[in-house]
Amino acid sequence: MHDEEVMQSVQDKPSRRGVVGLLAAGAASVAGWVFGGTVARRVPTSRGGAAGTALPVVPGNRLVAMQQELHQALAKPLSKRRWVMVVDTRACIGCQACVIACRAENVTGPAGSYRRVPEAPAGRFPNLTNVFMPTNCVQCDDPPCQRAVPAGMITKRPDGIVEFDYTQLKGRYAEAAAKACPYRAVHIDDGKFFTDGTPAVQAYERRSFVEYQNVMNRNAGGTPVGAARKCHFCLHRVEGGVLPACVTSCISNAMYFGDLADPASTVSELLRTQRSIRIHEEAGIEPRVYYVEDGLQGVPGYACATCH
Amino acid sequence: MSECESTRREHEGLSRRELLASGAFLGGAAAGMLGGGGDLEAAATLRESDTARPENYIYTTCLQCNTGCEIKVRVQEGVVVKIEGNPYAPRTMDPHIPWTTPAAAAAPVQGYTCPKGQSGLQSAYDPYRLAKVLKRAGKRGEGKWTTIPFHQAIKEIADGGYLFSHVPGEENRWVEGLKDIWALRDPALATAMAADVALIRKKTMTVDEFKTKWADHLDVLIDPDHPDFGPKNNQLVFNWGRLKAGRSDFFARFWRDTFGSVNGHGHTTVCQGSIYFAGKSMSDQPSGGKWSGGAKAYWMGDLSHAEFVIFWGANVLEGNYGPPLKVPKITRGLTSGRLKIAVVDPRFNPAAAKAWKWIPIKPGTDAALAMGMIRWILENNRFDRRYLENANKAAAAADNEPTWSNGAWLVKISSDGTPGKFLRASEIGLGGDADTFVCLRNGEPVAFKSDDAANPAEGDLFVDTTVGGVRVKSAMQLVREEAMARSLDQWAALAEVMTTDVVELAREFTSHGKRAVAELHRGVSQHTNGFYSVLAVYTLNLLIGNLDWKGGLVYGAGSYGETGGTGRPFSLSAHPKKLTGFGLDIIRGGAVYEESTIFSGYPAKRPWYPLASDVYQEVIPSCGDAYPYPIKALILYMGAPVYALPAGHALIPILANPAKIPLFISSDIVISEHSLYADYIFPDLTYLERWEFHRTHPSIVHRVSPVRQPAIPPIPETVEVFGEPMPISMESVFMALAEYMGMPGWGSDGFGPGRQLKRPEDFYLKMVANVAFGDSSAGTDVCPDADDEELRIFLAARRHLPPSVFDADKWRAAVGDAWWRKVVYVLNRGGRWWSYDEAWTSTGQTKAKYGKLVNLYQEKPATLKNSMTGKGMRPLPGYVPIADALGRPIADTGFDLYLITSRTMLMTKSRTVSNYWLLDRKPFNEIEIHPQDATRLGLRNGQKVKITCATNPAGEWDLANGTKIPIVGALKVTEKIRPGVVNFVLGYGHWAYGANDQIVDGVVVKGDRRRSAGVHANAAMRLDDHLGNTTLSDVIGGSAVFYDTKVRLVPV
Question: Which option is the CATH number for A53-307: 3.40.50.620, 3.40.640.10, 3.60.15.10, 3.30.70.20?
Answer without folding.
Answer: 3.30.70.20
